Each structure stands twice: as C-alpha cells, then as structure tokens.
Amino acid sequence: xxxxxxxxxxxxxxxxxxxxxxxxxxxxxxxxxxxxxxxxxxxxxxxxxxxxxxxxxxxxxxxxxxxxxxxxxxxxxxxxxxxxxxxxxxxxxxxxxxxxxxxxxxxxxxxxxxxxxxxxxxxxxxxxxxxxxxxxxxxxxxxxxxxxxxxxxxxxxxxxxxxxxxxxxxxxxxxxxxxxxxxxxxxxxxxxxxxxxxxxxxxxxxxxxxxxxxxxxxxxxxxxxxxxxxxxxxxxxxxxxxxxxxxxxxxxxxxxxxxxxxxxxxxxxxxxxxxxxxxxxxxxxxxxxxxxxxxxxxxxxxxxxxxxxxxxxxxxxxxxxxxxxxxxxxxxxxxxxxxxxxxxxxxxxxxxxxxxxxxxxxxxxxxxxxxxxxxxxxxxxxxxxxxxxxxxxxxxxxxxxxxxxx
Length: 406
Known about the structure:
Blueprint: E1 17-23, E2 44-49, H1 53-62, E3 66-72, H2 73-77, E4 104-105, E5 126-135, E6 145-151, E7 164-168, E8 182-185, E9 199-205, E10 208-210, E11 217-219, H3 221-228, E12 234-241, E13 254-260, H4 265-275, H5 277-282, E14 292-298, H6 307-316, E15 321-327, H7 341-347, H8 349-356, E16 361-367, H9 371-384, H10 390-396, E17 401-405
Parallel strand pairs: 13-14, 13-16, 14-15, 16-17
Antiparallel strand pairs: 1-2, 1-3, 4-17, 5-6, 5-12, 6-9, 7-8, 7-12, 10-11
C-alpha cells in the first residue's frame, strides 16, 4: 500500500520516496489466523523515504517479511497505467491489486489489425449502466467476489476474449483529483453473458486488508466502488486493451490455463467460447476440438468461482476439458503443507511438459506473480529429464507462453 503522507529528509536523496513490495508477514501457523491484525496473504506496499531505508529493512526483517522489490515512488504515484497492464482484485491465494500495482507480462504478440484497442479513452469514456452485481463466493468462503454485468448496447465497445477494460471509479482521491482508472480482465466472451453483443462482465474481488503497522482496515478504491454499484448505476468504462492473452484461432489448439482467484476471468471467456452451446451457435466457424486444461488455485471450496459452470462443462465434454483444483486450506501437498497451484503443476509437470512441446499448445498464466517461480521450477525438472534447459526452451516458445501476473 502506498502512503503519500510519508516524507523524507531535506537532502536530495532524503526527500525521495521509494515503494517497498513486501511478502511474508504471515507465514507460520501461529500468525496465520483470521483475527491476526496483519495482512492475510500476498503483498503489502509501503512508502519509505530514502533516509529511513536501512532502518525499515532491518525492522521488516525482524518481522519475518521479505522485500520483493523496491522502486521509486514517483513511477507509481503518477498513476501511469500501461495500455496492456491489467489489475485484478484477487481471492485468498493472490495479492490485492489496484491501478498502481504493475502487472508482469511477456512481450506482446504480433499485432493484428482486427484487434479492438482503446475504442474509449479516459478523456472520453463510455458511460454504461450496471445490469447486475452478483456474489460469487459461496457461504462459508473467504472475502467477497462480484460478477458485474454492464450494458454496452448504446456504444461501440467491442472486445475479444482475453482483453481488459478500465473502470474510472466515481469520486476523488486524497488530493481532491478525480480517481484514476483501474484495469480488470473481462469475464465474458465478445458476445456477452447473454450472447447478444449488448453486455460486458467483470469478476472483481473486494480488496480489504489491515495495515501492517496501524492495524487500520484499508479498502481498495475501485473494488469497493464496484462492490457497491447497483443495477441502473452509471459506470465509466475505457478500453478495451491487451493482446497478450488472446486465444489462438486454431480450434484444434491445446489450451493450458493456470489461474489463482479472479485470474479465472479470462479463462471463463475461453471456456464459454469453446464449450457453451449458445456461444457455439454464435460462432459456427469456430468448433473447438482441442484440449483445455484449467489448474485453478483457491483457498476454500466456497471460493471456487464459476464452479457450477466449469463442472457442467467438464461433465459434458470430459475428453476436451480437464479441471484441476488446488484448494490451499483444504488440501495438502506431498510435503504436508498447503496445496498451492505450483504444487499441482509440479504434480502434473510431466504431462504438462509433454503438451507444451506440441506446437499447437498455448499456455496461459493469470493471477498471483508468486506462482511463476514454482511453475518454472516444475517445468525445469520435467524438461531436464530430456536434457532440455527449460528457460531456453521457454524463450523459444514465447508466442505460445502467455503471462499476466501481478
């Protein structure tokens, strides 16, 4: 979390601010309790003046934290958002995300003339009306995640599966300036949930956590705004943006999907396009015949987003869709610890490696950045069995290895 009120000394360096990304404040059995007044999971952010950097490093180390990155505050505070940067409000296995939180992506694939980009910009957004705002987390789950559907029938907003839109939350920031946009992955196909080309949907987690120092509850600006919108409310939308997560045109491609929390959003669009009857009728030129495999990390069973939809597809198309859960608070990995998505990838690494070697296989990773190292470790081990250096091979398939993490 950024703290704009922090100040440094009077020297040129002392007046500069730096943003620390911190992990690991709750990593043991004693501290990992629901009532403990420290961030439950993922990263927290704090702003530190240059003059206190050493002291803060020492203090955080004593608290058991790990500093993931340090960057100048100016680059975050200016509110710059790349046109291909997406933020999600994630469930328990992921980090909180707002516009100031950068997303890591592989290099953008070759642009295609028919990909819609920035039809609506922040200076002239599309003003949509909310159609519905429904809870996705079942009773007994952790947190709240909303599926929000917007009316776009009155404009020219077009989009593809795997793209994102910007939301400009109403109100002003702590400096009295209009809130800046946040980006979210689209959770509906290009035809919308009603397959009538008139809607667009998002999957948004309500971001809330306790400040590690003050214990004060912190709420995400845009996720809180979207959590509260009601049918009929007007919302400003920009975009679409993004080319990294687009599906290949080949209906015989294999699609491996690895998601945590609301990183499921783009993958829901893939599955609808591939398997939903109404979508198939609307896209007679695209008849999916490959294999889609989703590995989905969530904290509890009630946190499985779109569970009924996915399990219906699995039941109807068992030869074409494979669904694997990593439920961290209910399942154990081989070492007896919590089962995270990287543990599932390690469990199936040889199968995944065999698929990845096929030219028609595309792999997509969306969600918590922290899962990337575990996935790479699993693929490194599998590739090494054949004398292949995974990192070198991964670079050679950059057109088929799609990453959007935060």
